[in-house]
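Changelog-adjacent note: as of this version, every example in the card shows the full chain rather than a window. The one below runs 159 residues end to end.
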Amino acid sequence: MLALALAWVLFVPAADWLAHHDVGSARGPLLQTARDAARGRLLTLGAVLFAGVALLFTARALVLLRRGQVTDRYTKAIEQLGSDKLDVRIGGVYALERIARDSPRDHPTAMEVLAAFIRVHSHEQWPPPEPGKDAVPLRANPPRRAGRRHGHRTPRFQR
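Full-length structure tokens:
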């Protein structure tokens, strides 16, 4: 109903006002031609406004979709970190690394999870000692940073 009222206002009073503005006090075919031209311009303006609003909604939907995908990837990576299989846990570490690199917004969270994972699991010796053999003591001074370095690529959020 609102759309019909808006269309009527655009095509009748607004078109008449615009036509009188263009041709002044002329009557007859000149006024009718001016009204048709004014309706065309108003229709073009309405189409441009509609396209702009549609573009804004599409951009917003894309942002929300990307956030949802990052959330799904994050959830899957956390599940992988909790696995009993080593190769699945390694995949979870790499997945969190990728999330941290792809999403500056989620970088601190991914790093906190990886740090917590390392803190919890760093007390275990890998590979586990064979039964009957003494365990090799853990290093007194573990490395301060672990990970791959990409000297030629600095993430956007660290520039």
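Structural remarks: The mean pLDDT is 80.
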